[in-house]
Amino acid sequence: MTPFPYQPDPTPLIFERSKPGRPGVPVPRATRGAEAYLPAELLREEPPRLPDVPEFEVVRHYVELSLKNHHVDRALYPLGSCTMKYNPKVNEDMARLPGHAGIHPLTPDEFVQGALELMYEVAEALKAIAGMDAITLQPPAGASGEMTGILLARAYHTARGNPRKVVLVPDSAHGTNPATAARADYAVRSLKSDARGQIDLAALRAALNEDVAALMLTNPSTLGRFETDVTEIAKIVHDAGALLYMDGANMNALLGRARPGGFGVDMMHFNLHKTFSTPHGGGGPGAGPVAVTAALAPYLPVPTLERDGERYRRVWDRPDSIGKVHGFDGNYGVLVRAYTYIRINGREGLARVAEGAVLNNRYLSARMADTYPLPFGPGMHESVFSGTFLREHGVKTLDVAKRLLDFGFHAPTIYFPLIVPEALMIEPTETATKDELDRFADVMLAIADEARRTPDVVTGAPHTTPVGRLDESKAARQPNLKYEWPTD
Amino acid sequence: MTPFPYQPDPTPLIFERSKPGRPGVPVPRATRGAEAYLPAELLREEPPRLPDVPEFEVVRHYVELSLKNHHVDRALYPLGSCTMKYNPKVNEDMARLPGHAGIHPLTPDEFVQGALELMYEVAEALKAIAGMDAITLQPPAGASGEMTGILLARAYHTARGNPRKVVLVPDSAHGTNPATAARADYAVRSLKSDARGQIDLAALRAALNEDVAALMLTNPSTLGRFETDVTEIAKIVHDAGALLYMDGANMNALLGRARPGGFGVDMMHFNLHKTFSTPHGGGGPGAGPVAVTAALAPYLPVPTLERDGERYRRVWDRPDSIGKVHGFDGNYGVLVRAYTYIRINGREGLARVAEGAVLNNRYLSARMADTYPLPFGPGMHESVFSGTFLREHGVKTLDVAKRLLDFGFHAPTIYFPLIVPEALMIEPTETATKDELDRFADVMLAIADEARRTPDVVTGAPHTTPVGRLDESKAARQPNLKYEWPTD
Amino acid sequence: MAYVPHSDADIQAMLETIGVTSMADLFDSIPAAQRSTAAIDVPSALPEVDVVREVTRLARRNAELVCFAGGGIYDHYAPSAVNHILLRSEWYTAYTPYQPEVAQGSLQVIYEFQTMIAELFGLDVANASMYDGPTAAAEAVVMALGVKPDRTDVVIGDSIHPHTRQVISTASGARQLVSLPFGPDGRVDLTKVGDALRGAACVVVQQPNFLGVIEDLEAIAAAAQEAGALLIVAADPVAMAILKSPGSQGADVVVGEGQGLGCAPSFGGPVVGLFAARRDYLRRMPGRLSGATVDHDGRRGFVLTLQAREQQIRREKATSNICTNQALLALAATVHLALLGRTGLRHIAERSLEGAHHAFDAITALPGYEPLVDGPFFKEFAVRTPKPARAILGHAAERGVLAGVALTRFPGFVDREALLIAVTEKRTDDEIARLVDALRTA
Amino acid sequence: MAYVPHSDADIQAMLETIGVTSMADLFDSIPAAQRSTAAIDVPSALPEVDVVREVTRLARRNAELVCFAGGGIYDHYAPSAVNHILLRSEWYTAYTPYQPEVAQGSLQVIYEFQTMIAELFGLDVANASMYDGPTAAAEAVVMALGVKPDRTDVVIGDSIHPHTRQVISTASGARQLVSLPFGPDGRVDLTKVGDALRGAACVVVQQPNFLGVIEDLEAIAAAAQEAGALLIVAADPVAMAILKSPGSQGADVVVGEGQGLGCAPSFGGPVVGLFAARRDYLRRMPGRLSGATVDHDGRRGFVLTLQAREQQIRREKATSNICTNQALLALAATVHLALLGRTGLRHIAERSLEGAHHAFDAITALPGYEPLVDGPFFKEFAVRTPKPARAILGHAAERGVLAGVALTRFPGFVDREALLIAVTEKRTDDEIARLVDALRTA
Ligand SMILES: Cc1ncc(COP(=O)(O)O)c(C=O)c1O
Ligand SMILES: Cc1ncc(COP(=O)(O)O)c(C=O)c1O
Questions:
Q1: Contacts B20 to D, Cβ<8 Å
Q2: Separation CA D358–CA A487 (nearest Å)
Q3: Which of A476, B131, C394, D428 has most Cβ atoms within 10 angstroms of its Cβ?
Q4: In chain D, what is the straight-line distance between the N-terminal and C-terminal CA atoms, in Å?
């Protein structure tokens, strides 16, 4: 039977709804056509085939499609590493205030003092949280922050006579770390984790030499666990003249409890779209500010932000800067949201965030661990379970993930980090209620039970979603990446 | 199987989610408790048992509940008489501008000139559309407009020495008409419709005498049909010294095509939440401005609105006024929406609205009429079909209505007007596309077919909704109208 | 044209199916004499962007003032989540929940709303909303007159909002409004209540009253009961967080203006009228009611119930003529109260109370400003002014402050040069200082 | 505290289940030396209403100016419906569509977006978005360098946006940036193209270019093809409504800033980078791709596909390091284009064109204002100013007008006292007159 809310199956493409000659939103019109102002040879003959769909039908189309998404405002979205916490509604309002959303980035500084003040305050707060000296807000996402960090490392080393060649990346790292290092023209050397899932100090020592520009460390690691040797690691890295980059995607576990600057990190990025509650938008936007020690500050992207009393200005004259990593000053709208979050939480609230994140994860882990093994033990804000015990029933982690969808939950991050076989990486975040965690744990246990008793139900899942499992190999073999208009 | 989006069944009440001691939205706090400012005997001992639910869970609760509603932005909502047209999104933005949403009604006129200008312009537009001399925007809904109109009639007649005793109401009228007249302390006399579904002129003449204060006429009638004798009706009514009230709920059919003032109407209400696209809000708010001829203008509610050059003011000193029908100046936020709609449509667009409304309805009627009889023929903007032909299969109009829900459409208005047995009153409005009308017609025909072949499917409907048919008599016999907290 | 979705080809095809040749033919049923050909006298169509500019211009023609005006509409803060919920088209583009199977969202919300309002007011049942506070009061009076068919007097405290009195007078069909004066403390003069009530169907008072003062409802209730009249109280729901509920004090019907619960001031509308009563009056109540029941599988569900009271069923015998109500604002109030919860609403009430008392102390310390009455007040109070109140308002507005409401604008108060000043939790100490300064320099 | 939902009782129960006695215990894994005890140096928690006040204060510290600034960010109008769609939490609170069964909404939108962008740019495939226009250009350069592993030169027109050049230089890892000057018409000097391109991996130009001028892409494409270099064009998608598409003129990759398609200026971000290419480069493209496929019942569905290009699969061998992109803005662009449709986008482009030409005519008629270059332009143009451009901006701002962008702020243009002025369909004749007046009186 068709589900409620009723959804035609499939929803047509917006192009399939198009019929020529129907009016769209009423817009201003010119008195004369383009030919009046431009030579004909510049003009196209046929307009681009955008759909002709009336406003009402466009609205219905995207409302209908919206119903085919899981989202945070429905139920737990326990994607490990993604920190899918509540996105406070007030953040959205603030970012949409005309005085924030309507300002042009090339406005002279004196007319955008509010924006610069806000950015300055965000920068100060993040520096305080990081325990570091300087920061850039320009990177529009975590990966861009990583890139910025590694380019800073290159500039730093270059200034010292040798840009170096290698970046060390633990095997548990997020894919953006090695991809970034490679993109910044460094050779990537992978570091095997030790039995604790942490950096193997011996291996680290062995890998280090004067060709190594930096180590990219995630702390807490992608296992959700604090790198207990971090001070030692920093020392080893620094002794080799290399820099310690910290992937701060997991700062939700540390807010107010530990400052990366305090344990030897030279540069780190934040993911404001994780730790600071800005929404993920179905894949973006984010913001990936990079905090650094004083030694790296000269290289930060331009413009930097400075304050003279009550006045703020963007400073372009920074001869050692690596340049620009974004067309303008980064994802300002995301910064407005993060600022709102920081102010509502305040110093007390931010510390509570980390407490809640760890409490929730440890509680959920405690409820699940008898059934789902934790090869490296529970993490702080997230834990990585292994689904290998289900193999004997012919059930994979992927199946558990799909089955969860039938219960109205999103799946965890799966098959990451790579060092845990059949990984289920679960991060509940601090905004989940105890009831929600209990419900989720109950369902996870029930699925394990199903896997034993009625494995077909699990391997055939999901059963209730708008589509069933999709043929991904067909998608890759015969790429169909856009609508093809019927040729008539 | 559970549907997607997943919905727990049933959704708990917000009270069932409450657990004491959980934080809500952060709000300002006093430094001292109420006892510091007020004598203890005024203060309650136990706070009202509002739910203790965190912000995120509140949001999820109302998002989840929202998914259990049909709404205009999903699919056709063909409720006859209700004019469920597209509610343009820009209307919502305009009503929410701080300069409109944030103003206090008791602000001195000189500081709310924008509001008064907007109201003045809405008033002028509605007067032009009605072809009438004066107007009040104060009534917050259609029924309140009716009440205002009948109170104006009472004032008018009283001023002429006799308030009169009776109001005539056609048997096809909407329930608010007789209810209003009774509420205004008039005896209601029902007028039987003639074979055309129109006012029976002979019956009208017979009913009229010097006790009759007014006739409440709906034009087009609730059958969607123009009262072709309206000028004659007006004459007959006026000859008896009575007034002609027009229920303007169906103005969508007449915009720019006919003006009630031009055919003898003394007073009429608009439903801005029908004709002028303001949303119904799940039952309200609306706005029911009442336009009148000059003879009735002295009695309009206070304040009225006047313009001196560029300045606008609210006028309270109106000794003949009936008084106030709303605490302040009516549903201003609804007026902002209607104004936006009027300006976007403009004179050209408003006339197109009526054309589209009639075109769509006549088209849909043409597509359905072979199967569903139209006892009084197709209407202008809406048509009333009869479902009696289904009786032989044991299927009622109610069943057809319920079955429609399974196809993602809302049901029509049913069992109204009372003069059509097993009535199905369908109003597609001008904002439905041809495709949508075709889909709807196809489904209606398919249901008629099902009624013949598999009547159980129809009488057992709906099958896909969050709940099935509900026990209405239990609800009425054992009223359960609020949550009862467990006594512990 | 903006919202009529057809292409010319669509229109042609549709006309053909209908069997007519032109749009004009569709209007044949209007006799020629009644057809109008002239264009409607409104301006030409504009693109959306231009209308936005125009409506924004009008918004800016309204002064932006820090609001100390009250008198029924209060500048409380609505948490952002309220509006986000309201912006879901599932809520605002739905109709009245006549088909319960596809309206369980709306119906459950009404049920929750009814619960909250009944709880705040300390009564058994509440309805799905009325137009606003004053019209709710008028409905209550109509109900009382129905309950007491042999009585025609309606006793109204002079300390009630003058607009409420006007609406009752206009819209309730009440024949006899009897005034009940208030004493120097601003409260209904209890010595006069007993007399006035003899033969009355009901007495209507406000809590806190128009002057912000908290009435002694228990005493009034006792007198009403004694006289066999219903006690109708128009109450501020925000005050209910800290004040004894009128229901617990003996009120039979409690109505109220719910605007302070998550609705923007919006120049006075749309807001939401609250209506609650003792169970005895259930079948005489106006307005919609959502009731819990079950479907054929025993699942809980909600329906509009006891519709035999309403116009769509009962026509001229209905308890009220109301049809469209203020459902969306009732949703706002429900979400608002859910977000604040037990302690949140209390904080807001206490903070408003405190701010009002601070403002009162500072203002009455200014030369020429004296309390109009001396009873205990919640978030609003009246002070006599050394100059005409309207002039002071103008002076303060130049300083960006709406310094309250001039009492002189209200019938019954035209000769009282006084300002009615309201302070909500939204007003900062700084803003209160600006108010005081504006009054001082006026 | 605001968003951590537990009661003390919850916390106690949870700690017990975990088997620890206090919150502090949960942080035991952090070695004592690394634990910080001092409070974070940010201000104390505030109620929501106070934060709204504060963030509103900051918004008001930004001047409200009628915007004639462009340079990559344009004040086009986004129909209201765009934002209403975006405000549905289904869109903005979802993650990347990694579980396609519960993300068909996002995936279908990406597919529609890819179709629209490919269509506007006249190319075979487009991706799901990049961070912005300049970073998309940098990605294109990286891709070109990968396609032509034996070439290291990247030729860049001087008529490209200086920020784009900076981002390419910073973030593409390109070793050699070769400049291509522009002539008096503001277009890339075709006589220099052939030479420059020898040995280059690619040439990057902008359409319309930084000075608003429409380049002769066919000629550049011919030269690029001749030299075996890829042609990368950074194009304005709004201009595509009337201009020949770069794809049809021979471009291999077209990138662009999509901000003008329904995204607020927002001080330059979040906006949306566009990336389209010939099919040949499909497997070298950066970023996500949504592809159509079927489920086990043959129903159409969409998945993220060709992920073997991406960092989550390929790590250091990925075509790009991008992960989070600008999905929500891509949704905005998709809804925007759907709302405007074929004719709407054309009207907007034509109206912008017309307004810009009117403004140009009026401004260049003023004494001291002369065209900087004389090529054909779309919605933006540069004029030499009789006084320092920055001073003129200040003067105009006092009149409420942001009179463009001073070219002197950009590397490569520091000695050009000129204003770059953009006119969108949103600018009324009246506003243009205000601009002209401000320039006249400067
Ligand atoms: C551990 C880690 N590092 C880096 C990133 C990359 O951040 P972004 O997606 O914002 O580019 C992610 C994102 O999921 C992450 O989880
Ligand atoms: C014909 C007719 N008259 C009057 C009304 C009452 O209007 P309202 O619901 O706004 O009070 C309606 C509402 O449905 C109606 O259809």
A1: 7, 9
A2: 40
A3: B131
A4: 53
How many angstroms is it from A364 CA to the middle of ligand 1? 23
Q: How far is CA A213 from the centre of its chain?
A: 25
Residues of chain C in contact with residue D428, where contact means CB-CB under 8 angstroms, are 50, 53
C431-A96-A63 Cα angle (round to 5): 135
Longest dimension (CA), chain A: 76
Where helices occur in D233-326 by DSSP H, the ranges are 311-314
pLDDT tens digits along C263-279: 999 999 999 999 999 99
Prediction pTM value: 0.98
A-contacting residues in D 333-372 (Cβ below 8 Å) = 334-335, 337-351, 353-354, 357
Number of residues written out for chain B: 488
Q: Is the pLDDT of residue A77 over 90?
A: yes
Task: Tell me: ipTM over 0.90.
Answer: yes
Residue A290 phi, psi dihedral angles, 5° rounding: -120, 120
Q: What share of chain B is helix, strand, coil (3-state, %, to 5)?
A: 40, 10, 50
- CB distance D98–A9 less than 8 Å? no
How far does B208 lie from chain A, in Å, by closest CA?
47
Nearest protein CA to atom 5 of ligand 2, as residue: B142
The Cα A215–Cα A181 span in angstroms is: 10
Inter-chain residue contact A55 with C80, CB threshold 8 Å: no
The whole-angstrom separation of Cα C100 and Cα C203 is 38
SS3 of A429, please? Answer: coil
Looking at all shown ligands, the one closest to residue B79's CA atom is 2
- Fill in the DSSP letter of residue C213: B
- The answer to whether the beta carbons of residues A389 and A375 sit under 8 Å apart is no
Question: Closest Cα to residue C342, out of B46, A427, B110, D285?
Answer: B46
Residue B476 has pLDDT above 50, yes or no: yes
Cα separation of A151 and A157, whole Å?
10
Please report how the helices B332-368 and C48-60 are oriented relative to each other, as an axis angle in degrees rounded to 10. Answer: 150
Q: For C103, name the nearest residue in chain A, comparing CA atoms only.
A: A5
Residues in contact with ligand 1 (CB, 6 Å cut-off): A 81-82, 141-143, 174, 176, 218, 222, 247, 249, 271, 286, 288; D 323-324
Rounded Cα distance, C134 and C72, in Å:
9
Q: What is the DSSP letter of A325?
A: S
Which residues line the pocket of ligand 2, CB cutoff 6 A?
Answer: B 81-82, 141-143, 174, 176, 218, 222, 247, 249, 271, 286, 288; C 323-324
Cα distance between residue B427 and residue B275, in whole Å:
12
DSSP letter at B292 equals: E
Q: What do you get for the CA distance between the two ends of chain A, in Å? A: 36
Which of C7, C55, C85, C104 should one mutate to test binding to chain A, selecting the residue with the greatest count of A CBs within 10 A? C7
- Which residues partner with A383 through β-bridges? A426
Task: Identify the nearest ligand to the CA of B179 by its number.
Answer: 2
